[in-house]
Every structure is written in C-alpha cells, then in structure tokens.
Design a protein that fits this description.
Layout lengths: L2 H6 L1 H18 L16 E4 L7 E4 L5 E4 L1 E8 L4 E10 L14 E12 L5 E4 L17
Antiparallel strand pairs: 1-7, 2-3, 4-5, 5-6
Length: 142
C-alpha cells in the first residue's frame, strides 16, 4: 500500500497538482496585477465513474447538509490519501441546497474528511469564483 499503489492511480498525481495550483492562488506574486486575485480555493467534485461522491456535513448552528463539492487541504502521496474540507452549496438566500439545484455560492466549512484517492477515478474542478461568493442584497420593494 505504499508509493507503488499511488503511482498506479493518476488521480493522486492530479490531486497533488490541484493542491499546488490552489497554493499558487494565494502565494504567487503577479507581475502585472497589483491586487491579490482573492481566491484561495479550487473547488472540485470526485467521482467513482458511476456517480459523484457525496457526504453529509453539519453547519455551525447544527443543521445538516449534503455536498459533493470539496477543497483539498492536504495530501499524503505515500498512502494516496487526501484531507478534504466540505464546501456547502447554498442558494441566493444563503440556504443549503442540493448541488444539482441552483447553486449560487459554495461556502467554506471547518468540516474535514480523509479519503482514499484510489477509490475514485475522476475529478471535476469548478470555478474558484463560486467559493464564498457574496450573496446579493435584495432591497424590498415599496
């Protein structure tokens, strides 16, 4: 179950590259851009080939939600495992929704899981612009 097993699964290598790119979002200095881009997460969905990986999470106020979207926090290449944090999909009002519904934003959470990357065969990255996207302020009509 060592390095040989991980090399058999290209997803482990892809996740390493994803983590490197995510770290560059925060750490890189850009030559022509004075302001930081403002993104620190590349959200993604994992799949076993038949369906997307989905887990339950809990908000700080105790409400449960389901998600298929994650942020990579760390990777153990030797064992081909990764620590992922859950991203909660919410609608325009800030309420949790199923990922296939109308997702307006992906809210970062403190909830993490460890997964064996050899259980998955594909990764689908999503736009960093979705993470912690500010909810619109709706003015009441008079």
């Amino acid at each position: 179950m060592g390095k040989e097993r991980c090399e058999e699964h290209c997803l482990c290598v892809e996740m390493e590259q994803l983590l490197e790119e995510q770290q560059r979002l925060v750490l890189e200095d850009f030559r022509f851009v004075c302001d930081k881009i403002g993104y620190d997460t590349i959200p993604f969905v994992l799949s076993n080939g038949k369906c997307a990986f989905e887990v339950f999470g809990r908000t700080r106020n105790g409400h449960f939600f389901t998600t298929q979207v994650f942020r990579i926090e760390n990777i153990d290449s030797r064992h081909c495992c990764a620590t992922l944090s859950l991203l909660m999909p919410v609608d325009m009002d800030g309420y949790p929704v199923e990922f296939c519904d109308e997702v307006f934003s992906l809210v970062r959470t403190d909830t993490c899981i460890i997964v064996d990357l050899s259980c998955f065969c594909s990764i689908k990255p999503l736009s960093p612009k979705l993470v912690n996207r500010e909810l619109p302020i709706v003015e009441p009509k008079c």
